[in-house]
């Protein structure tokens, strides 16, 4: 009331928006001034909060959480300008304990979670590239792309091989990596007469690399699935059981011995007949 605050209309309430706005404004207009005791309590509470943190500091804190993820306090604490790491850590602890009290917490959390999803996606791509490279001793010469039906007509396999290998070498998650990749392409001696590749800008190279990364991830999934099935076959056994102590024909040794015992006397008997 003292600052002449006007309640904004919440369009999400539909037909009730005007009614709710008038009711909230009436509460403010008819509010009684704070007593001396309440004013003293207000001043005491203000000293307990983060009075040195401005709206700009708050927005910057949200952006670095989006950039690094809420758990990366080492980077977050370094990137909030004008605040020491200890101040940022203390602020972060209170923020995550009481963030549900903010009116626009859904928007804020959506912003942070979108950033964290991007971080997870970059980590997944890095693992896919690492796995692909580990299968070759000399990937710049040996690496093969499993194109399937997605070869395309513009880029050659040699160009794609170089893009994938150089992207991995430069570091996929580095800032401005595709601009560095463009410089690497123009400096590569094998492409000194390749005007198509040398004329690609950073955005075009990024689009091509995104396509190649998708192919590599698909190839990795197929390899993992094949290895899983082979491992399952090996651990699954033959499905049948053999008789312990059986001979080559599957007949137990004890039976074979009995047959042998029965055969010997018959031979001796024949010998006796011939002698007589």
From TrEMBL:
Organism: Anopheles culicifacies
Keywords: Chromatin regulator, Hydrolase, Nucleus
Similarity comment: Belongs to the SNF2/RAD54 helicase family. ISWI subfamily.
Basic and acidic residues: bias regions: 19-30
Any Pfam family the entry gives: SLIDE
CDD domains documented for this protein: SANT
Chain ranges of the SANT domain: 48-100
Any one GO CC term of the record: nucleus
The protein, known as: SANT domain-containing protein
InterPro entries documented for this protein: Homeodomain-like_sf, ISWI_HAND-dom, ISWI_HAND-dom_sf, SANT/Myb, SANT_dom, SLIDE
GO BP of this protein: nucleosome organization
